[in-house]
Specification:
Radius of gyration: 26 Å
Order of helices and strands: HEEEHEEHHEEEEHEEHHHEHHEEEHHEH
Structural class: alpha+beta
Number of helices: 13
Distance between the termini: 35 Å
Oligomer: single chain
Largest sheet: 8 strands, mixed
Bound molecules: 4-amino-1,4-dioxobutan-2-aminium adenosine-5'-monophosphate, magnesium ion
């Protein structure tokens, strides 16, 4: 018999004679002559109420079922007598698939996020985490849909690389040398290699061949920052567009954030409702602002003036020429503008080598998108397409023109203005769920001193 998912069952309009459902017991209540099992199969938030009558041949076994056990239930879907659910399953056959002892850690009560991080192998069995990971899945699909509808090609950029796109030196080294051996020429690639921090440099090469492209894959940064919004392994979505300037880049970023938020509102109503009720009371209002208002766009210099004049007390001082901290970003978007903000034209001194120099010679055609609760969710720029300018920037910033010869050379053959950005996928999941810690939107997060699961 073909298995029915609880999610499909919820959409039934008429009772069904016979279906098969497989899932895990969330709770059990016993009366004199029958037991109610609440089972969940992970397909949606809703549990299915199973009524198991004492006439079942293995009723003794069913009465001993505990939270966490897995079962297969065959039976008829009938209108429920009780409130809280439209249908219930009148069991004809209940098969115990795998028992769970009383010590199963996820008993029916609320557990703290900290506790659940310590049992990452089990936490997806809770309502909150299963909802988060379903939304994560739905968002990944929406990303591909967004680009597909706009004619972008999905490309795969390397994970093993010898370059440091962002130039921040936060690299995870990759080596096959035995401990103690230092001769690079004996190493697998024969040169210093690392996990990628961004697929951008390679994406640029494909954009100047295929037109509009995007990558969507894992990236790695050995930033030793234990914050709520940094992970050592995270996924990034990086579109790259040929014949595109910073304005069009910002347009795409805004359109994309709105599209993705709307997609979740339209496709994940039940899961979203859980977050709006239990995680962030402001969530639906925030999503309304996100989808309903034009993002503010201001140059970096103006952002700094606003922060300086704000009278707010920040932990980190505000000064032209320094990078904005998360508290500054959040002040701008949460308190000052009360909507998403795009800050553009940052000083060249705080940005990577590849960004296009503006005519003032001091700022680059860069942009960050800031949203409530998170701060920076997107970082992007127009790329320096002029060979001489790029070579000069590489010299000034101490990058090896020999090592990045291919990147530089691309500017000699039909170079075109092009732009792109990186959207942090985990920060996106945080944005649409209201979850405030990046460790809780990744099934198995990697942060400093944390790689257990
Ligand atoms: O601003 P970033 O460093 O930009 C780049 O990597 C560019 N090469 C992107 C491009 O233009 N193609 O990173 C982009 C985004 C950030 O805005 C943030 O959302 C996310 O990636 N991000 C992180 N997310 C989680 N943990 C970290 N350690 C992150 N570092 C960046
Ligand atoms: Mg950035």
């Amino acid at each position: 018999m073909k298995r029915t998912k609880i999610e499909q069952l919820m959409a039934f309009e008429v009772p069904a004679e016979r279906i098969l459902v497989k899932g895990w017991v969330r709770t059990k209540r016993d009366s004199k002559t029958f037991s109610f099992l609440e089972i969940n199969d992970g397909s949606c938030l809703a549990n299915l109420q199973v009524v198991a009558d004492e006439k079942l041949p293995n009723y003794e076994e069913i009465r001993k079922l505990t939270t966490g056990a897995s079962v297969a239930v065959e039976g008829a879907v009938v209108p429920s007598q009780g409130s809280g659910q439209q249908w219930e399953l009148q069991a004809a056959v209940v098969t115990l698939v795998g028992a769970a002892p009383e010590s199963f850690p996820l008993q029916k009560k609320r557990h703290s996020d900290e506790f659940l991080r310590g049992i990452a192998h089990l936490r997806a069995r809770t309502n909150k985490y299963s909802a988060a990971f379903r939304i994560r899945s739905e968002l990944a699909l929406a990303v591909h849909r967004f680009f597909h509808e706009r004619g972008f090609r999905y490309i795969h950029t390397p994970i093993l690389t010898a370059s440091d796109c962002e130039g921040a030196g936060e690299l995870f080294r990759v080596t096959t040398l035995p401990p103690g051996e230092r001769l690079l020429e004996n190493d697998f690639f024969g040169v210093e290699s690392n996990l990628t921090v961004s697929g951008q440099l390679e994406a640029e090469m494909l954009a100047t061949a295929l037109g509009d492209v995007y990558t969507f894959g894992p990236t790695f940064r050995a930033e030793n920052s234990n914050t709520r919004r940094h992970a050592a392994e995270f996924w990034m979505i990086e579109p790259e567009m040929a014949f595109c300037d910073l304005q069009e880049d910002m347009d795409l970023a805004e359109e994309m954030i709105k599209y993705l938020a709307n997609h979740v509102i339209d496709h994940c109503a039940d899961d979203l409702n859980l977050f709006a009720r239990f995680v962030d009371k402001n969530l639906m209002a925030q999503l309304g602002v996100l989808t309903g208002s034009a993002f503010e766009r201001i140059p970096y210099a103006e952002a700094i003036r606003i922060l300086e004049k704000s009278g707010a007390s920040f932990e980190y001082p505000v000064a032209y020429g320094t990078d904005m901290q998360s508290e500054h970003e959040r002040f701008l978007t949460e308190h000052h503008f009360k909507k998403p903000v795009m800050v553009y034209d940052f000083p060249k001194t705080i940005k990577p080598f590849y960004m296009r120099m503006n005519d003032d010679g001091q700022t680059v055609a860069s942009m960050d998108v800031l949203v409530a609760g998170i701060g920076e969710i997107i970082g992007g720029s127009q790329r320096e397409e002029r060979y001489d300018m790029l070579a000069t920037r590489m010299d000034q910033m101490g990058l090896s023109k020999e090592k990045y010869w291919w990147y530089l050379e691309s500017r000699l053959y039909g170079s075109v203005p092009h732009s792109g950005f990186g959207l942090g996928f985990e920060r996106l999941v945080m944005m649409v769920t209201g979850i405030s810690n990046i460790r809780d939107v990744i099934p198995f997060p990697r942060t400093p001193k944390n790689i257990e699961f």
